[in-house]
Amino acid sequence: MSQKKVKVRFAPSPTGDLHVGNIRTALFDWAYARHTGGTFLFRIEDTDTTRVTDEYIQAAIDTLKWLGLNWDEGPEVGGENGPYLQSQRLDIYAHWAEKFLDQKDAYHCYCSPDELEAVREAQRAANVAPGYNGHCRELTADQVAAYKAQGRGAVVRMRMPDGTTTFTDEIRGEVTFDHKFVPDFVLVRADGSPLYTLAVAVDDVLMKVTHVLRGEDLLSSTPRQIRVYQAMGVAIEDYPVFAHLPFVMGQDNAKLVKHPFLGIANKVICQRQSVIT
Ligand code: GLU
Predict the structure, then answer these.
(1) Which of 90, 100, 117, 240 is 20 to 30 A from 28 via CA?
(2) Residue pLDDT, tens place only, 152-192
(3) Paired residues of 78 in beta bridges
(4) Rounded to 10 degrees, what is the CA torsion of 231, 92, 221, 196?
(5) Does 190 contact ligand 1 (Cβ within 6 A)?
(6) Ligand 1 atom having least distance to the Cα of 225
C-alpha cells in the first residue's frame, strides 16, 4: 500500500437510511484509519437532489455517531478540505467540467432521451454492448447551432479514448477494463447539476484521499474515475489506492448489502433484550 499518511473516506449518498453495505464500508474505513494513525473523512454525496433528503443526511450522521465511528474531517467537525456536503461544492464541479470542455476531454452532447433509447434498442437488437455511440463527439459549429436553435439542452460527456484502463485493486489484484465497455459518460446533466462520477473523483483528489475502500458494486465506476483524474492532471502516483470489498451475504447466501442497517440493528437489540429478560 502507499507510503503516504493514510486518508480514507466514507461517502454515502443518503437516498434512504444507511444499509448494511454502507455500514460495513464505514467500519472498514474507520478501522483502517485508526489502525494506521490516518484520517477518517466523512463526506455526504447529496448531488441527487430528487432522492436525497435532509432527514436522510441527518440519519446518516446520527447512525455513524451511534456506532461510535468518529470522523476526523466532515460534517459537524469541519476540516481544511470542506465543505463536506457535495451540494455545497457545486462551483468546484462546474469549474472542472468547464476545464475538461476547454481541454476537449469532454464535449456537449445534445442527444435527447428518446434518441439515446433508440440507440440502446438498436444495440440490444444487434446484441452489442449497450452505451453511448459517440454521436456528438465531433459536432461542427453548424450542427451545434442547429441543436441550439431547436432549443435542445446539452449534457457534458467525458470522452473515453480507445484502449484499456488497468489498476491494482488491493483485494482483487490487477483489474483491466476494456473501454469498449466503458462508453463516454455524462459528467453534468442538462440542468447543470453534476453526476456522481464527476463529484466523487474531484473530491477524492481535492480532499487528498489516499485509499478508496468501498463495495464491489462500484468497481465498474473506477475506470471512469481514473479518467477524471487523468483529465485533472493528477500524477499516477497520486491516484488513490482502490480496495473493493465483496458483497455482504446473509446465511441464505443472498445479498445483505442493501438491507436497511437500522432494521437489522433493531432486530439484534430486540433479540438481545428478549435473551436478557
Ligand atoms: N456515494 C456513493 C454511494 O453511496 C459511494 C461513493 C464511493 O464510495 O465511491 O453509492
Answers:
(1) 90
(2) 999 999 999 999 999 999 999 999 999 999 999 999 999 99
(3) 74
(4) -150
(5) no
(6) 9
For the segment 43-88, what is each residue's pLDDT rounded down to a tens digit?
999 999 899 999 999 999 999 999 999 999 999 999 999 999 999 9
116 Cβ below 6 A of ligand 1: no
Report pTM.
0.92
Cell of 52: 436525497
